[in-house]
Write a structure and sequence with these properties.
The structure holds 2 protein chains of 2 kinds.
Chain A lengths: L5 H17 L2 H19 L4 H20 L5 H35 L14 H17 L8 H9 L1 H4 L7 H9 L5 H35 L6 H33 L16 H7 L2 H12 L9 H19 L3 H27 L1 H20 L3 H12 L8 H17 L5 H7 L3 H22 L9
Chain B lengths: L1 H6 L1 H21 L19 H13 L21 H4 L7 H15 L11 H14 L15 E2 L3 E3 L17 E5 L1 H9 L5 E4 L14 E3 L2 E3 L1 H7 L6 E5 L12 H16 L4 E5 L6 H6 L5 H18 L2 E3 L29 H9 L5 H18 L8 H6 L19 H10 L1
Parallel strand pairs in B: 3-4, 3-7, 7-8, 8-9
Antiparallel strand pairs in B: 1-2, 2-9, 5-6
The chains are: A mainly alpha, B alpha/beta.
Chain lengths: 457, 420
């Protein structure tokens, strides 16, 4: 179940929140836990067991670690086992097909390539539970004695399937004690509405431009269409993912939690370094906290710093998907960030306009790598962008979608947030939000009814 | 309660509207209240209640125009298309004559379906000359056999057999009408043809839905045709995908007949080609029970019948886009339906080899060519001796006619290709 579905908004949400608000505090975590399991099982009944198993394994590993002396080899070994289990499951379910394919290609063997359906949200909840065991190992937090609370942390439905990656220490306190008041519910629902609008009104419609590019075939796009397509995809990705994160944050607030911000106007970044402080913040900070710094960060000399960055970005690329173009995408950011670390960042900090422009171009080229499907396709697309090809093929898309494209571009910069904070209680703002909510719902309803009578071809 | 509203007015507003809609939706779902608007299927009990309510209310407040199909095409009163005067005086040959007489006969008989009664004189000569003419390319106009000739590749009737043409055939006087797949063709074929096509365009929306939006206004296809009668010499129609699942009881055919009759009425010189619905890829075929290749093939047979009854050409372009299993090869269409720009060549090749050359077309081409040549080299005036022999007897050749026959006009072809 995704948040932007009628089933979630009109069935799961009312029933769940009603139950959640009426039960006494002691039972709230239990309701949240069971509700989240229902939420997960709705789309993926069999993999619920995998999540539950992950909770049990990590729960006992953390307790075991607590009995061993700090920095003892035994404690390190238990951490190793826990991580082995978590990463192992992730690799098994996400990367087996990819590994087999490449082994076959390199060694000329003929192992069968299994097609394993990716368990929903496995990349996200694996990272969350790893943050917990690593934090227990480091003694940043005590192990959770109550398995229900730990389970609630992991499967909490707002962040279960698509982030933000909430680390245990962020919510540990609130798991034990939290205040739910009317204004947090109100603000949470408002954030949920904004996120829903971003997803349904912007991301879903702008996605059509990108699919028009794909329909035509990359090798035939005119230069303007290639740019329009990748601009639309950049915005689609931001509003899709950013909107989803915002919905999660809103739902979290309604539950009485406060989740970290995940997107902070990434396309207004003045350098690629800045971009990664604004795009999928919870993932970047997870990698910094649990990979980059343990590897030594930047404290072990220049050479090790770059090696560490290389490792982090290779894994980041791989985390996004099991294909070579994601690895290339990770390497691409390694190169860009290394250049910035060496000298470019200083230049961009002084010349922010130039920096913003270059960053946008660089990020858009990055998205080509990210979504093209294969490296050779990405190269074809980039060649259409950077060599001149005339054509009018971009006009139909532009004529149909400019009305979404223009506000989407403007709102991807921090222009409206100040107004929102100031006037979010004013009647105008309430009416606007109300309109966004029901407009999104109407669009969702339209997409459901008679899809083949909607004249799509 | 008051405090609740003061503290969180937004939440209360959303919940209250949601509840109202949910109650109404439930009443609809369980058939306790009847739907407000006609034509809306009653909801199933399993649908999200709010969704059924919204769907119902939306249909009530902005009813979608019901799909209506006229019994036959009725030309608007007082509009007299004047193809003979528009087409430059060169096409008083038998082609236009026979079509207009066909129209006349059609207006007489109210079936409105086809040119069943052609000029008897033409028919006789056509039958006599038919056999000896088959080998030759350019003198087809007089063998207007009424019996459609149906092959695997397509069928022609009325105009004569298919011949091969060069790219100059596909100029601005060639009109392409249809859905998003035709939009793609217009965009990526490289032919400078006129395209009146849009995403979601369907055969039953031709008479109501604007196909061209300009700053001056929106125009439906009949309006556009009426504005420029006789302008087009070749009309290619391709519809079918948006209509899948609609009009099985004969409405689909009827809509097709009406559109063809309308085009014949306004564009009397034009050769009308009806193209088959292209197949979808195997993956798409498996995904959807509606857009399946079995359904598409069934519809194509209907279209072929319509074309044959109307005595226009049916072009089975599927022949060049089908693999052994009858599906579109997956590398031709990345979304399973729309041809990639790079996959237009088989289509273009098919059109080049399945064209009809009529007097009107030849005359128009020659005129265009002449204009071209006088532009390039105003002094070329002498007429090659053999060109006079190439002109069929039935046609009235203007006296100043002086250029090589159509096959040799390479200069124009290059010109056209440069525009690509």
């Amino acid at each position: 179940m995704v948040f932007s579905s009628l089933n979630f908004i009109f069935r799961f949400m009312p029933v769940f929140f009603l139950l959640y608000f009426i039960v006494p505090f002691r039972a709230k975590n239990c309701v949240l836990f069971l509700g989240s399991i229902v939420f997960y099982a709705f789309g993926e009944p069999k993999y619920v067991l995998l999540v539950l198993f992950s909770i049990v394994v990590n729960y006992f590993m953390a307790l075991l670690m607590d009995r061993l002396a700090p920095r003892s080899p035994g404690r390190r070994f238990v951490l190793f086992l826990a991580c082995l289990y978590d990463v192992g499951v992730l690799v098994l379910f996400k990367y087996t097909g990819f590994i087999m394919e490449n082994v076959n290609a390199v060694a000329g063997t003929d192992f069968p390539v299994p097609h394993i359906a990716l368990p929903l949200g496995i990349s996200f909840y694996t990272f969350q539970i790893m943050s917990y065991v690593i934090d227990v190992y480091r003694r940043t937090c005590p192990p959770e004695r109550n398995i229900l609370d730990l389970g609630t942390y992991l499967v909490m439905f707002p962040q279960l399937i698509a982030g933000p990656i909430v680390v245990y220490t962020d919510v540990a306190e609130r798991l034990k004690e939290r205040h739910i008041n009317l204004s947090s519910v109100e603000n949470g629902l408002k954030l949920f509405t904004i996120g829903l609008g971003e997803k349904v009104i912007f991301a879903n419609t702008l996605g059509n431009i990108w699919s028009a590019c794909k329909e035509a075939g990359y090798e035939s796009l005119s230069t303007p269409f290639a740019w329009l397509g990748i601009l639309a995809y950049s915005l689609q990705l931001y509003y899709d993912f950013g909107g989803y994160s915002l919905m999660a944050i809103g739902l979290g607030q309604m539950l009485g939690f406060s989740f970290p911000q995940n997107f902070r106007y990434p396309y207004s970044a003045y350098s690629v370094t800045d971009f990664w402080h604004r795009w999928h913040i919870s993932l970047t900070s997870w990698f910094r906290e649990y990979v980059y710094i343990p590897l030594g960060g930047n404290r072990r000399g220049v050479f090790r710093t770059y090696i560490n960055m290389l490792i982090v970005w290779l894994i980041t690329g791989f985390w996004h998907g099991a294909a070579w173009n994601f690895v290339a995408w990770g390497l691409y950011y390694f190169v860009l960030l290394s250049l910035e670390r060496a000298f470019l960042h200083r230049f961009f900090s002084k010349h922010r306009i130039v920096g913003r422009f270059c960053t946008l171009i660089a990020v858009m080229c990055g998205w080509v790598l990210f979504d093209a499907g294969s490296l050779s396709d990405a190269m074809v697309y980039l060649s259409r962008m950077f060599t001149i090809h005339g054509g009018t093929d971009f006009l139909p898309s532009l004529q149909t979608y400019w009305i979404f494209l223009v506000p989407a571009c403007i709102l991807s910069f921090p222009v409206a947030e100040g107004f929102y904070r100031k006037f979010k209680k004013s009647p105008v703002c309430l009416v606007l939000l109300f309109a966004i909510f029901w407009l999104s719902v109407v669009l969702l309803v339209d997409a459901v009814y008679n899809p083949f009578l909607y004249f799509r071809f | 309660m008051k405090k609740l509203f003061r503290k969180c007015p937004y939440t209360v507003a959303v919940i209250v509207t949601g509840l109202i809609l949910a109650v109404y939706g439930l009443l609809l779902n369980f058939h306790i209240v009847p739907p407000l608007s006609q034509g809306i299927e009653p909801e199933e009990a399993g649908t999200v209640a709010v969704a059924s309510a919204i769907h119902e209310l939306k249909a009530f407040f902005s009813p979608k125009p019901e799909i209506t199909v006229a019994d036959h095409f009725v030309p608007p009163e007082g509009e007299i298309p004047s193809s003979i005067t528009v087409s430059g005086g060169t096409s008083s040959g038998p082609q236009s004559g026979s079509v207009s007489s066909g129209k006349a006969s059609k207006e007489g008989d109210d079936s409105g379906k086809s040119l069943t009664e052609k000029e008897d004189g033409d028919e006789e000569t056509g039958e006599e000359e038919g056999e000896e003419n088959t080998g030759e390319e350019n003198e087809k106009t007089e063998e207007n056999t009424n019996e459609p000739v149906s092959t695997e590749d397509g069928s022609y009737s009325g105009y004569g057999p298919f011949t091969e043409v060069d790219d100059s055939y596909f100029g601005p006087d060639a009109l392409f009408i249809g859905d998003s797949r035709v939009v793609g063709f217009g965009m990526y074929s490289g032919f400078p043809v006129t395209t009146y096509a849009k995403t979601g365009y369907a055969i039953h929306s031709v008479f109501d839905k604007p196909v061209l939006k300009t700053p001056l206004g929106s125009f439906t296809l009949p309006e556009l045709m009426a504005a420029e009668p006789g302008k087009y010499k070749k009309i290619y129609i391709k519809f079918g995908l948006n209509e899948m699942g609609w009009g099985n009881g004969g409405l689909f055919e009827q809509a097709y007949y009406n559109v063809i009759d309308m085009l014949k009425y306004y564009q009397q010189d034009a050769v009308i080609y009806v193209m088959s619905i292209l197949p979808v890829t195997a993956k798409k075929d498996a995904d959807s029970s509606v857009f399946s290749n079995a359904n598409i093939n069934a519809r194509n047979e209907v279209i072929r019948t319509v074309a044959e009854n109307e005595h226009v050409c049916y072009l089975n372009i599927n022949g060049v886009y089908t693999d052994e299993e009858g599906n579109m090869p997956s590398d031709f269409a990345s979304d399973g339906i729309h041809l990639k720009a790079a996959a237009m060549e088989p289509w273009k090749d098919y059109l080049r080899t399945h064209a009809i050359m009529t007097e009107a077309i030849k005359a128009a081409q020659e005129e265009a060519e002449r204009a071209e040549e006088t532009e390039e080299n105003p002094e070329v005036t002498e007429a090659p001796a053999e060109s006079a022999e190439e002109i069929p007897e039935g046609a009235e050749v203007p006296a100043e006619n002086g250029e090589p026959p159509a096959e040799e006009n390479t200069g124009m072809t290059e010109e056209v290709q440069e525009q690509n």
